[in-house]
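Hey L., structure's done. Input below.
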Amino acid sequence: MAVIDATGRPPAQAGAAPRPVRSRDPEDHVVPGGREEAWRFTPLRRLRGLLNGPPSDTKIDVSVAAPDGVEVERLAATDSRIGRVLTPADRPAAFAMARADGGVSVTVPGEAALTEPVIVRLHGDGGVAYEHVLVELGPFASATVVLDHTGSAAFAGTVEVFIGHGAALTFVSLQDWADDAVHLGSHAFSVGRDARLRSFTVTLGGDLVRLNPTVEYRGPGGDAELYGLFFTDTGQHQEHRLLVDHQARNCRSRVVYKGALQGAGAHAVWIGDVVIGADAVGTDTYELNRNLVLTDGARADSVPNLEILTGEVVGAGHASATGRFDDESLFYLMSRGIPADEARRLVVRGFFAEIVDRIDIPELRERIMARVEEELAAVGV
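Output:
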């Protein structure tokens, strides 16, 4: 936690990493060498050229299933709505926005109350691909939007989400890629006055997945809850880097990410950054990361960061922990006649239940837990 001095700036700021450049021009972003704070955990050699923006040799197959009243359209690259929320902070995001040839737009009109989710399916068939997705909720609307990533690709994607004043959005991003996929993604959320965001990021597949969700508030009373679930298997690299930027007054945020790791070379990275600006009085924020290591050879890096530039906050804190199975829970279950392998599955299911049970789509909950079961069965856990 940063300590504030008489100037109103944390003393450590002078030696801190510089703020990232924000630009839609890829050439404004330096090519990382791996020592930069933003890239020090990422195995750059496994990015399959996405740092340099190779031309796409395929397209992501995008299909949208939406209830009546939802407008779905393909935007031209020159459409002014592109870039309304997201200004890229790294080269892959800039290339994704530049090479996506426009974007897929989903618009929920003001005051609409959707009873069925909007499902955006993105499927890769190999090769290099880019895509840009825009989601906009009008004032006082309520909706659930799901992004479902499957198949294989070297994929760089960007997502912009604009939530109108008083609106409520549940947003789910599911990364259920094939084992050889690479996914570099930037998700930007803009939360309106008295609006609510509940976001779920579920990462289960892919060779390398690196996602950067960010949240900003456009007015007081905004509320954002960011939940994450990831299962990192042998040789996989899964990286989630979050930024919640509190600059408006009386806003709230909660971040809860949980991950399980198994197998040699499994590597999970969680970075949680929360900034509370000098004018963001009344902020209430907390972030939590928990990692469960199931086998030897797996590694989890967890780095929560909190920067506070005002003393007038309701609450601000963070917590992080990485550990193995809860042996007491395992012993308790086995002492009641439950076989060891089934007991381990129950422990993992219980570990993830806090996240999964909050998803309001039964079919999606069942799919996520079935995939977790498949991962556990693969190594006999």
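The helical segments are 91-99, 327-334, 340-356, 362-378. DSSP finds four helices and 16 strands in the chain.

-- N.
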